[in-house]
Amino acid sequence: MNTYLRLCLAFLLLGSIACGGGNTEKSAAPPATAVADPVNPDTAGALKGSIKLEGTPPAAQTINRRSDPYCEQQGEAKTQNFIVSNGGLENVFVYVKDGLGDMKFPVPTTAVVLDQKGCSYAPRVFGIQAGQPLEILNSDETLHNIHALPMNNREFNRGQALKGLKHTHVFTTAEVMVPFKCDVHNWMNAWVGVLNHPFYTVSGSGGAFDIQRLPPGTYSIEAWHEKLGTQTQMVTIGPKETKELSFTFKL
Amino acid sequence: MRLHLYAVLVALSTAVLIFAGGLVTSTGSGLSVPDWPTTYGWFMFTFPLDKMVGGIRFEHAHRLIASTVGFLILVLAAWLRLAEPRQWVRRLGYIALGAVVTQGILGGITVLWFLPDPISIAHASLAQLVFCLTIAIALTTSPGWKRAYAERGPVPDDRILQQIATATTVLVYGQILVGATMRHTDAGLAIPDFPLAFGHLIPPSWDPKIAVHFAHRVGALVVTIFALATTGHVFYHHRSRPELWRPSALLLVLITLQITLGALTVLSHKHYIINSLHVVTGASVLATSLVLALRTRRGSVDRLTGSREHDESYRMHRNVRPVRGHA
Q: Is pLDDT at B311 greater than 70 in this prediction?
């Protein structure tokens, strides 16, 4: 290899470091193996209920976002630790913790999107199946780093300097919950529940939740809240049965 | 003299770097720039200023200051090689250069590996050693050191003072290591009250974080006792030696300030400015105790290094010229 060629290669290497990559990145993930859906729609039941909150939650605080002029221009933002509507607590992750035995479930190929928009995460609490792609999007005209801090999966920290950048990640192991944070904007937090099955949801307006297509059986159901921890209840669902379940968190 | 002034500038810039590093950890910004040595894919020095927002302000500024200090130490080592006749002082320059390069690599690794505690603690601890090396170079290139502080006669060969001053320096460094461990294991508020611990003299319950935090408080007490002993000894026995009582007095002032800042760090729930000032004041306590310890051993340094022929005092006395390469 002559000197000129070596210089060209060195220049290309430096250039690739200096200029970075394209606008879409992917974390390597094992290919999903096809699994037949074990749920029989003729016998599947459902679980419905609500999350109640006893006590008065602390008032939402205005977040100081002056450290980034772009974020400040997005308007006032308040803390979202306790979102209460009609006496119900939102953003509670509800899922089947135990009772499914060795059942295997197909893994969706459609990506779950975690958006960084208005210097906040949307959604703040969500679920995903292990092996399902998670697409992390920067919709802001500022920089974000997306930093996942799992215990059982691989930690990652990616920078997204430009609007429109996407990063796709696949969690390989079930873990409830995996926290996300942005170290650039220390008020940005999100949590994902990674599961080996599709029986999870997040409480919405009025604290209501709804898990459909549950095979008949006895389950341990857990509700997780970012500040109030977890609560667990047992429930038995018969064929075509819809059970009501209520969790009450106390302050 | 120019070399000495430059060495002082390098030491001061290293103190600024330590403060900047303190800001990074105090604001939790260590991973706000996920890549290294690039910054969000940009070459470090071409990263746009308008993109320095949020935590990036602290982390990227720390990297820029660190690069500047690294360059300043490179120049210092080169300058020492060209102009310093004492081989052991030139070697200090080489060691400082090696240490600052290692420090930069540790800083990069700790980012790429998501701030593992051992690497982050090593990064914080080596920073203090780099600072000590720049202080030592600034001291040993100073006119006073070269004159061997001979205006008031030879530096006293006081073994007791040498031992307690050295012990104080070692203890201060140990205290800084415990502080770095506390800082990087998030134990800074493990004991939330001050001066008591959960309302008691001794914490009523223990876990690793409380233990590290309490060890740092006990360490502060031990360091204070040794600093008082050193200072008391200097004021009692060597009041006529300004090269000894000045750093002793400064040591007391800095320790008082440092304990105040430590208390305020807890009481302010780790306000990032107070917390960072606590870090850099700790470094200043170490530097001051090091200067004092080195000065107490000024006479024995000649014997240890065989560099007596290059001392200005010796040259003036014997009317000899320095010879390169015979240190």
A: no
